[in-house]
Each structure stands twice: as C-alpha cells, then as structure tokens.
C-alpha cells in the first residue's frame, strides 16, 4: 500500500513546524532500543561493552548529522558481529581500530566515486543469504553465552558442540540459572510487541534486559554480568604498529569485507527505510560517505564498525521522527548515559544480552520468504541457502563471494537462452515436378553463448543430412566467439557435402553482432 502524500508540516526528513517535539520523543525511543543492542553487539564481538556505546554515539552525533538518509539510524550491528569477532581473535583488539578506520576511508572513496548506487545491483538472494548465515552463526555462538559458557571458535565447532552444551548445562546449576535468564529474555522479546499499547511506550529490548537484570538482582542468581571499564579507558586509538600490519594481505581482505558488507547492509537498510515514510529519498552516494566518515572516526577511537540498522531506523520512523535531529539526539542520550551512569552497565547479566542477540539473529533469517521462493524462484532460493551454508561452514567473506559468483552464473545462464525453429521452405514449381524435397529453414533465436553451445550443436546435428539447409541467424541478439566459431565449423562441414547426391547446402542470413 503506497504511503499517503505528506504535507510540509508532516513530511519526514523535512523541517516542519513543531518538528522538534516529534524528534525529541523519537530520539528517546531510539536511545532505549539502541542501548541494549550497542552493549550486546560489543559483548558478542569480544570487545569491551563501552566500545559498542562509542560506536552508537558516533553514529548519532556524526553520521546522524551528515546528509544521505534523513531518518535511518547508525550504530553497531549484529550483522558484523561474526566478522568483528573473527578479526579480534585473529589480529587482537588493538588492530580493530585500524581495520575499521581503513574500511571507513574505503567507504569514503567509494562514495566519492559515485559507487553507492551500484550496491542496489547486488542480488537480493545474496544479501538475504548473507544475513541468514550471519544470523545462524550468531545464534549458534550466543546459545553458549545464554548459559555463561565459552563458545567454540568456528561455525562448525559451534554446531558440533551443541550436544555437549546440553550436558554441561544439566550438570551446572550456575549455567542452568543463566540459561533461564536468557530464555526468559527471548520470551519477553517475542511476547512484548503483542501488547501494542505498552510496546509503543517501552521498546521490547529495553523491557527484556531490564526485567532480566531485576530478576537476577531480586533472586541473587549466580550469573555473569557485563564487565565495565569506563568510556575513556575503553577507547584505544590504533598506533604505528597496527598501521604497519595493514601490509598483511589477510588484513586487507578483512578491511575489504568490513567496507563492502557494512556498505551493503547500510544501503539496503536505507532502501527499506525509504519504504516506511513519504519524505525525501536517500542519496546513496552521500549516505555511503556518511557511513565512511562514521567508520573512520570509530576506527580512530578503536571502536566497533557501524552500519545503518533497520531495527533502530524503523523505531525512529514509527516513533514519529520528522528530521535528522532525532538520530543526533539519540547519540546525545547515549553519551550522557555512558558519562553519568557507567556503573549501570555492570549490573546487566550477559545471558540477557545473549538472549537479545539470539532473537536478533533469528530475525536475520528471512523465514517468510523461503516458501514463496521455493514455489516461484528456486534458483534464488538455492543461492540464498548456499550463501548461508558457506558462511556457517567457512567464513563471512568467502560465503558472500560464493553467493555473488552463483548469482552472476545464474543470470548468465538465464540470459543466454537460445532455441531453434525449423520450417520447410516452399518448393519451386520445377523442383516439384522432379520430386525434390523442400529445403529446411533453421532460425536460431535468443542469445547464443558458450553456456548453451552444447544444446545448440545437438539441435543442429540432429537435422537431416540429406536436405538442403538454410541457417538464419537474424533472430539472435548476441553471438559470442565460441558460438560463432562453432556455427562456422558446422556450416563448413555441411557445405563440404555439397558434391554428394543429393546436394546439401547451408546458407547463412545476416545475424547479430559477434
């Protein structure tokens, strides 16, 4: 259903009269949604909780102020959790800043080169497969955190360790208590939005984490809590040694993965947010540069990478935001909270944040799209599934590359459609008196590429060898070199039989460009 036309007084993204009142309310809602997610993503990424808040602050105060998309909100995202965790485990926490900084500079360069709009050309199946794979790995890892246990390093290791996890939880009262806290958090996240009146006032993530924290405090449960350092202590700008490590090809691959995946997630989020309101549309190149500027600053502070996040962005629109002031103010509230109440983070149980991320990982998998894809676009479903499985089995970067390759191959196969029409040409009157057989006209239609060459040659070679053949290529839109050479070879072979009785002759009509 299309959005109703907006008036100057109500158009989101514009500067209507009285907009500050709406933006102020929306900023508080977004802050309440963002706070547990910022902390949860940081903990799941293997970095201090404060670094997630730092990224959220930069996403609000800097990226929120820059042009691009007026209503989408940026911050640390669950979609990059797996990649960040792998990078921290491989290169160390000190290297995170330089990785994020380099990725931000790459995003700035891509935006300056007007490459933002090209991200819309990425196959939706690849993006959905990427998010599904991230969601599955996130769930598999955070299931261990639900019980305050250490997760194996690889995706397959996490899956293989699930039976042992059940035994460990059953044998440990502490793990069982943490699991109850985490499962209760997930249940509240799923049920709270059904109470629509309350959900409009208090967002589900805040309610779930607050309830879990209260339950742990009241019953004195022996569960792990978030470790707090302090905002300034957590900030670790990269040094010269970290910059020198960029000479490593593997680190450059991680930078490329950060930049491409963060950019794709941000710009697809922008497209989704544009469908939620009727205000100004996103300028993709400016939005890409805004994300790059934010990541460059986050990298300089040694914080997490950022993307535009659909959960916070949707909350911003639904709360009635009118201008970019709402997302800037949400950054102000994060900064005030981190400066004035840092100890409040230390009472949050880790299992509750794990529950938030398990719920977020579940929502990353496009469950509702699987049925329609199976019925109507099974090729797209295959790309989605292979991409997701490759991410679970291997890693995020390799999985996305495999998905992109499959998408290109599928498109090339579909575009290279070719078929043959065979008709009999009228026989001249003198030929009819002599009992001559009519010549066959073979018309080739479509796009003749090497992918369909076996089928094309099989069809041509099945034609009768004792009839005159007229080959018409005028219906081809494209002929690649392999097909052109094969058709020429087939023509020469048949023309070589012209001296035999009865004669066989092939004539070629004008066709497409080679």
TrEMBL record:
InterPro entries: SLC26A/SulP_dom, SLC26A/SulP_fam. The chain crosses the membrane at residues 24-44, 51-71, 91-113, 125-147, 175-192, 204-223, 243-262, 332-362, 382-409. The keyword Membrane applies. It is a multi-pass membrane protein. It comes from the Bacteria. It is found in: Membrane. Keywords: Membrane, Transmembrane, Transmembrane helix. Residues 20-387 form the SLC26A/SulP transporter domain. Pfam families: Sulfate_transp. This is SulP family inorganic anion transporter.
